[in-house]
Amino acid sequence: MRFIVIGGDAAGMSAASKAKRNKPDLEVIVLEATEDVSYSACGMPYNIADPSRAMDDLIVRRSDVFRSKQGIDLRTGHKVMKIDRTNKKVLYETSNAQTGAIEYDKLLIATGARPIRPEMPGIDLDGVLVLKSLQHGRIIKEFLKKSSPHKVLIVGMGYIGLEMAEAFHSLGMSITMVKPGPRLLAFMPEEMASVVKRELSDKGIECHPGVGVKAIDIDGSRLKALTTSGYIQTDLVMMSVGITPESELAAEAGLKLGPKKSIAVDRKLVTSDHDIFSAGDCADAFHVITGKRVWVPLALRANRAGWAVADNVTGGDVELPGIMGTAVFKVLDLEVARTGLSFEEASSEGYDAVQEMIKSRSRAHSHSGNQTIYVNLVADRKTGKLLGGSMVGKEGVAHRIDAIAVALHAGMTVEHFFQCDMAYAPPFSPVWDPMLTAANQLLKKL
Amino acid sequence: MRFIVIGGDAAGMSAASKAKRNKPDLEVIVLEATEDVSYSACGMPYNIADPSRAMDDLIVRRSDVFRSKQGIDLRTGHKVMKIDRTNKKVLYETSNAQTGAIEYDKLLIATGARPIRPEMPGIDLDGVLVLKSLQHGRIIKEFLKKSSPHKVLIVGMGYIGLEMAEAFHSLGMSITMVKPGPRLLAFMPEEMASVVKRELSDKGIECHPGVGVKAIDIDGSRLKALTTSGYIQTDLVMMSVGITPESELAAEAGLKLGPKKSIAVDRKLVTSDHDIFSAGDCADAFHVITGKRVWVPLALRANRAGWAVADNVTGGDVELPGIMGTAVFKVLDLEVARTGLSFEEASSEGYDAVQEMIKSRSRAHSHSGNQTIYVNLVADRKTGKLLGGSMVGKEGVAHRIDAIAVALHAGMTVEHFFQCDMAYAPPFSPVWDPMLTAANQLLKKL
């Protein structure tokens, strides 16, 4: 049996490796358009922040290891042009313009996502950069080395935009951030988002929600962005306005699409064609709380879905329960995390949503080094169930969020969560963990 | 109605305060034998480590605040000598030897626990110290100031012994630790405990499990401990061999006792007398996993039980699900945490226990500052349910344990836990959180 994987990043290589481990005599062919496979994409902002490091440090496993040690027929520089479902073939073109076709028994589409480049004058100018692939990372790093930019305009304030703000800040650059929408980190209550805004401002980073970019132009040796509130001169424009699934191949093959043009898959990662799977940033997922299809491209899901595909291709019967958008990121000295539904999301999903935000401390009363920690919890008044949570603080946020995520997976009520026996020691929390304090306050509103 | 509370520490003052908040016209009298109420006992090792701080910094709320602002009739220096259940009275003696009696409608016994002072020659010598109450803390601090000891022998290697080792280490003292039992931190696999042992040894702390102390004697201006493997000269002996519940009052009043002479209470914190509650380090609890009575005196439970008593005294009907011994402590540069049942505990409880220990990293592949993190998970082969977990590492342990605790409260299987959507960002974990990696490995044994 032949298993073909289109795309050699997290989902694709996880699937290829595990399928081969599960069933060593399976023929596994990976077709990857670029020369890069298996790298830690999320590590790029930190690598960019460190001029002494090569971007290729982020490669987790090199192509030759997949080939020689794992017996995977990994073909880089192979771009798939078409999926012929009738004849169960993929048609490809190599980087030196050769074409070919291979038949598959089972196929995995793991084409990932690409950064959105909004249509506007100047979007293709030198110095207008995006970040998603390792090649993007190399381009940014080369631009920094070659042009020594002093000033950067970051368009977008999502995870990547904020992580890149930290990276550019550590390189001593002057930073302005804009986004068209009025709210920074809209999944959190405004008071919590304002903690992030204050941190940016304390570090000298200008942050203007509600400002869109309409065009970019050359201005002598620099760039000039025309925004909805005037011109901004800059040396570099970092476009971090989101990503979009690479689903064209799937769409042209007539496969069903899900939210935001992602590839629709069932809980076994099967598309609308029972011989074709999809996993990673190109595929959708079910939301654990709402049960609805969502598209939240994150690394853990990509890896997990890759493994599940491998199991299902090799005779298993794995169903994934789904995702909740659990995420954490670091921005300067802050940790920001979320899981499940925000108050606004819960309300628009039809829940009788209620939320509570509390301010607590990261350590015990009178313990030195105490930091403020903010916790927001969202619940459903009708069932008493926890629906989501978010946190921000200088320490203790990143791993706490997983406790809330587990509670959501278990369908816990706020009352049950409040009764959980959590850990306490003075260096790590108050006696009542901030999550418990939030749960206790939220209970009063239920 | 009159609500009398015996003992003014965590459980007692939590109960008194909340009862008064719930029902301002309730008469609330607290009888406390010492002059200290409402202090952060767990903060004492950190306070002792800092000579510039007064021990009284650990007082969370002063007596006069309870009296004037909260309307609680707080009587310090009142030691209760007897509970007369027939006449619903408590008999007390004050610190200036006056006696009296007061009638109660509802009574809470929150007498806490006292450190064990093993019977041996020399146990009462000057310089043989224990730590449980604020007064013990003051005595240690005064001893350090007065005698400037260079060397300390710590007897016991539990949380307090290890936290005190850190405190004495930060004061530049030379430290030897002994305990009669053969294993350090027996709730963890030996390989994980050896990480702690190595950390102690790296910091120059001698650690000898399997060595008991038989007698202590004066040796010139110093002390000399006779151990099962020879004499140890020292300036100070820190006895940290555990605590025992202060349950004599309850026992003499004929109340039913639980494990290790703790006071037996039901889920509403009611003792075998329906007008008498017990909470805090003197009372037992139900184990969430086994459903059995256990005595695990920890701060969160004391506070939580105090609140529940207050609610039940003021017309509520609160039942606490129980505890799981979730705990964390810091020792030097390590964080150590546990929750639920260890492999040995699970086996002796009759489960078909299986465990897996994995070594992972605290940060993503190639992220700087990576530390090793060890995770042990225990499950029941018959049901696939998670039964417990422990962790050790230099970062990221303290709050991760709560995710496992929540999973245990929810009765999750290892499979379900493995499917949880956890947070990932390079500074905080690998893509597969160490807990998920442990769950995945454990699944292979189920």
Question: Could you characterize what this model shows?
Answer:
2 copies of one chain form a homodimer. The mean pLDDT of chain A is 97. In chain A, strands 3-2-1-7-18 form a 5-stranded parallel beta sheet. A 5-stranded parallel beta sheet of chain A has the order 9-16-10-11-12. The first copy, chain A, folds into 3 domains: 2-34 and 77-113 and 243-313, 3-Layer(bba) Sandwich (FAD/NAD(P)-binding domain), CATH 3.50.50.60; 117-239, FAD/NAD(P)-binding domain; 336-443, Enolase-like, domain 1 (2-Layer Sandwich), CATH 3.30.390.30. Chain A is globular and about 65 Å long. In chain A, α1 (10-22) packs parallel to α8. The first copy, chain A, has 12 helices and 25 strands. With 446 residues, chain A is an alpha/beta fold. In chain A, β21 (327-331) and β22 (334-340) form a beta hairpin. The longest helix of chain A is centred in the C-terminal third of the chain and has 15 residues, at 299-313.
Question: Key features?
Answer:
FAD/NAD(P)-binding domain; alpha/beta; 28% strand; 5-stranded parallel sheet; 12 helices; Enolase-like, domain 1; 25 strands; 446 residues; homodimer
What radius of gyration of chain A results from the CA coordinates? 23 Å
Kindly report the greatest chain-chain contact and the residue count on each side.
A-B, 68 and 68 residues
Q: Please give the largest β-sheet of chain A.
A: 5 strands, parallel
What is the SS-derived class of chain A? alpha/beta
Report the CATH architecture of the largest domain in chain A: 3-Layer(bba) Sandwich
> Would you count the extended β strands of chain A for me?
25
Instruction: Give the spatial strand order of the biggest sheet of chain A.
Output: 3-2-1-7-18
CATH class of the largest domain in chain A: Alpha Beta
Roughly how much helix do the residues of chain A carry, as a percent range? 25-40%
Terminal Cα span of chain A: 56 Å
Basic shape of chain A: globular
- Could you name the CATH topology of the largest domain in chain A? FAD/NAD(P)-binding domain
The number of helices of chain A is: 12
* Binned strand content of chain A: 25-35%
The oligomerization state is homodimer
Uncertain regions spanning at least 5 consecutive residues of chain A: none
Q: What is the total number of structural domains of chain A?
A: 3
Mean pLDDT of chain A: 97
Looking at CATH, the homologous superfamily of the largest domain in chain A is: FAD/NAD(P)-binding domain
